[in-house]
């Protein structure tokens, strides 16, 4: 099973842009059980807090599929503190969770996860991860 940790910006983008790679990843891969989203309490808390922000109400937030995606995710305990410095320390749990789970981190903000701080974690944009998934499916 392909494991992925979704940065919160991917969740938000999927709910706003129904035709883009983030929406395709969640709707056509995660919610159909072709990939497994990995979560932990701190990540779930951030998802729920961010999608309830006033600025997203105009998009019909929170998205109806969010709680289903969370319920269907692979739930792990909060990971250990990430030992490497990154631009926004609030993003560190996403890297730590991906490392713990052996998952890839999918984010729309690659610059928030510098290569020097990834410690072996594969970090891809939604478009690049989607391309990887589609290529691997065509090889089957």
Descriptive notes:
This protein is an alpha/beta fold and 140 residues long. It has a single domain (2-139), classed as 5'-nuclease (Rossmann fold, 3-Layer(aba) Sandwich), CATH 3.40.50.1010. It is 44% helix and 12% strand. It is built from six helices and five strands. It has a five-stranded parallel beta sheet, with helices on both faces. The longest helix is centred in the C-terminal third of the chain and has 14 residues, at 126-139. It is globular and about 35 Å long. The model has no long low-confidence stretch (mean pLDDT 94).
Strand order across the largest sheet:
3-2-1-4-5
Q: Calculate Rg over CA atoms.
A: 14 Å
User: How many distinct folded domains?
Assistant: 1
Q: What is the β-strand count?
A: 5
- CATH-scheme architecture: 3-Layer(aba) Sandwich
Estimate the mean pLDDT confidence: 94
Q: What's the tally of helices?
A: 6
Compact overview of the structure:
The protein is of the alpha/beta class. The protein has six helices and five strands.
């Amino acid at each position: 099973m392909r494991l992925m940790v979704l940065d919160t910006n991917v969740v938000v983008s999927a709910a706003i842009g129904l035709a883009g790679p983030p929406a395709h990843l969640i709707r056509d891969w995660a919610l159909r059980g072709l990939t497994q989203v990995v979560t932990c309490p701190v990540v779930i808390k951030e998802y729920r807090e961010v999608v309830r922000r006033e600025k997203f109400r105009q998009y019909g937030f929170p998205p109806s599929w969010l709680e289903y995606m969370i319920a269907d995710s692979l739930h792990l305990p909060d990971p250990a503190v990430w030992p490497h410095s990154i631009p926004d320390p609030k993003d560190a749990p996403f890297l730590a969770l991906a490392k713990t789970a052996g998952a890839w981190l999918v984010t729309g903000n690659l610059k928030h996860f510098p290569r020097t701080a990834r410690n072996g974690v594969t970090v891809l944009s939604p478009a690049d991860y989607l391309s990887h998934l589609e290529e691997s499916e065509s090889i089957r």
